[in-house]
TrEMBL record:
Keywords: Aminoacyl-tRNA synthetase, ATP-binding, Cytoplasm, Ligase, Nucleotide-binding, Protein biosynthesis
Binding-site positions, L-tryptophan: D135
Function in brief: Catalyzes the attachment of tryptophan to tRNA(Trp).
Organism annotation: Nakamurella aerolata
Chain positions of motif 'KMSKS' region: 195-199
EC number: 6.1.1.2
Major subcellular location class: cytoplasm
Reactions catalysed according to its record: tRNA(Trp) + L-tryptophan + ATP = L-tryptophyl-tRNA(Trp) + AMP + diphosphate + H(+)
Subunit note: Homodimer.
UniProt name for this protein: Tryptophan--tRNA ligase
């Protein structure tokens, strides 16, 4: 079975529907066909300031959401990144093979550091893509299901794998991004030109938010001054985004939805989306609540996953250390 790895940051109290449709839905589906490794990337989360108690809670609630969404720890390896030291060890070696200019071109760093001021950004935010490359390459990963925003980091990962292989002999599998066109970028409900993001909570539809609040957000989502319900990303980004959400959450194609809503208003579309979203999150929230009631069991599942992950990642690290000329520890 082909190997798949993907990660998600525990940087919020809830994932949003963009995380789900862009990545997590594919994570669940790929368990059937792939040897899957899924990780809550807490090392990435400290690249920006985060309170320790919040990080601990968010790591657990992230894992609980993944389990509630259908990640099955008997079939997939689910673990927390900081519990597998090979990620940081490999990332140092990769950093030493990355050009400073090459790393400086990463648009996520440019965007995020522009928000807080470049001088106040951590060095970790700058080296984030090389840690992400280590996450992926440590597992000889073939496919990485992510949203469009991660495409550039995936390209860097591929370049690093190819560069390392060319210099030292075949060491890494060169991974492919797995990005589904229709859900690669879910947009903010209040600002349909921007990507839905954990850091813009007003327009992000959170999976664990009180249902009443989400219904309100959907009903006040920004649309346009026309009346027609039609998919047109360029001229009708808000309506197109709502159509995408309803299409994927209800399993109905966009042309079918356009037909069904011919002659109807935006209120009808929002009403149905609110219903479908409510039906999706209600059992999910209940399951997350149950899992969070037993944090010791959650920690046990994660520790078991980390044990399995270490076996694979340590083997890659040992090969890399040997290839670059480090002495074996014995
Ligand atoms: N709007 C989105 N549409 C589609 N996919 C998305 N992803 C994130 N936002 C969208 C995908 O979700 C996965 C996990 O992302 P992450 O943990 O790296 O979170 P992020 O990108 O930091 O999420 P945010 O919400 O965008 O947070 P901030 O505000 O910190 O930038 C990834 O596969 C990502 O592609």
């Amino acid at each position: 079975r082909p190997r798949v790895l993907s990660g998600i940051q525990p940087t919020a109290d809830s994932f949003h529907v963009g995380n789900y449709l862009g990545a997590l839905k594919q994570w669940v589906a790929m368990q059937e066909t792939h040897d899957a490794f899924y990780t809550v990337v807490d090392l990435h989360a400290i690249t920006v300031e985060i309170d320790p108690a919040a990080l601990r809670h968010r790591t657990r609630v992230s894992a609980a959401q993944l389990l509630a969404l259908g990640i099955d720890p008997r079939r997939s390896t689910l673990f927390v990144q900081s519990q597998v030291p090979a990620h940081t060890q490999l990332s140092w070696v990769l950093e030493c093979h990355t050009g400073f200019g090459e790393a400086s071109r990463m648009t996520q760093f440019k965007d995020k550091s522009a928000r807080s001021g470049a001088d106040r950004s951590s060095v970790g935010l700058f080296t984030y893509p090389m840690l992400m490359a280590a996450d992926i390459l440590a597992y000889q990963t073939q496919q990485v299901p992510v949203g469009e925003d991660q495409r550039q980091h995936l390209e860097l990962t591929r370049n690093l794998a190819q560069r390392f292989n060319a210099r030292y002999g075949r060491t890494f599998q060169v991974p492919e991004p797995y990005i589904l066109a229709e859900t690669a970028k879910i947009y903010d409900l209040t600002e349909p030109a921007a990507k839905m993001s954990k850091s813009s909570p007003g327009g992000a539809l959170d999976l664990l938010a009180p249902v009443k609040q989400s219904v309100k957000q959907i009903k006040s989502a920004v649309t346009d001054t026309e009346r027609e319900i039609r998919y047109d990303e360029e001229h009708k980004p808000g309506v197109s985004n709502l159509l995408t959400l309803l299409s994927v959450l209800s399993g109905t194609s966009i042309p079918d939805l356009e037909n069904r809503y011919a002659g109807k208003g935006y209120g009808d579309l929002k009403g149905e989306l609110a219903e479908v979203f409510t039906d999706f999150v209600t059992p999910l929230q209940q399951r997350v609540g149950e899992l969070m009631d037993d944090p010791a069991e959650l920690d046990r599942v994660l520790a078991e996953g980390a044990g399995k992950a270490r076996q694979v990642a340590d083997a890659t690290l040992a090969d890399v250390y040997d290839k670059v000329g480090f002495l074996a520890a014995g």
